[in-house]
Each structure stands twice: as C-alpha cells, then as structure tokens.
Amino acid sequence: MNDPFPEQDPKQPRRAARTSDSLSKPKQLPGTARRDLAVCLVDARGDPLGCSEPYGQDDGTVRTVTRGHVAAVILIGRDTRVLTVLALACAGPV
C-alpha cells in the first residue's frame, strides 16, 4: 500500500505553496491605489452586494468593486462570506 503522504526527500528543495500573480500585485500598487483597494475590500466585506456591481451575469457571487483607479473582480463565498480577489487592475502609474 502506497503512503498518500510520503516524506519529502531532504535533498530536494521544499515546494513553495501555490501562489498567483494576483497575490503579488497589491504590493506593487502605488500607495493611493493600495488604499483604494483596501477600502473597496473592507466595504465589500460589510455589504458585498451593496458595494459591488455584477461581473457578467448577475449570479451574486462574482462581482466587481471599484474605487479611484483600482478595480477588482471578487468571488463572494455564499456561506462563509469570504472574499477572494480573482482579478486586479489599476489604471495609472504602477
């Protein structure tokens, strides 16, 4: 029987957790754009449907939040109310 969780070979480099470009983009935004994104996400956390617009077909789960020069497409978890940023755009110098 094969072990589903085999020990990692210490000679091999550790695998990093899977990351996405969207995780590094907020750090690359100018200060005002980062602030705008933070305000968007905090507002959306409190009232996700009221502070966002539908993205494509209005299914209530994929929405767009915008402020200043920043726009983000978010996924709203129905039961957990967790927001996941799917896409991030900034119009202006980065």
Task: Provide an overview of this structure.
This protein has one domain (21-90): YaeB-like fold (2-Layer Sandwich), CATH 3.30.2310. It is of the alpha+beta class. The protein has a four-stranded antiparallel beta sheet. The protein has two helices and four strands, in the order ααββββ. The longest helix has 16 residues, at 31-46. Residues 1-32 are annotated as: Disordered.
The number of distinct helices, counting runs of at least 4 residues, comes to 2
CATH topology assignment: YaeB-like fold
Series of H and E elements: HHEEEE
* Inertia-based shape: globular
Low-confidence stretches: 1-6, 13-23
Helix content: 25-40%
How many strands?
A: 4
The residue-averaged pLDDT reads: 77
Q: Taking Cα atoms only, what radius of gyration do you get, to the nearest Å?
A: 18 Å
Counting structural domains, the number is: 1
At CATH level 2, the architecture is 2-Layer Sandwich
Give a quick set of tags describing it:
globular, alpha+beta, four-stranded antiparallel sheet, YaeB-like fold, disordered N terminus, single chain, 26% helix, 94 residues
Structure summary:
With 94 residues, the chain is an alpha+beta fold. The protein contains 2 helices and 4 strands; from the N terminus they run ααββββ.
Fold topology:
Elements: H1 21-28, H2 31-46, E1 53-54, E2 62-67, E3 70-76, E4 83-90
Antiparallel strand pairs: 1-2, 2-3, 3-4
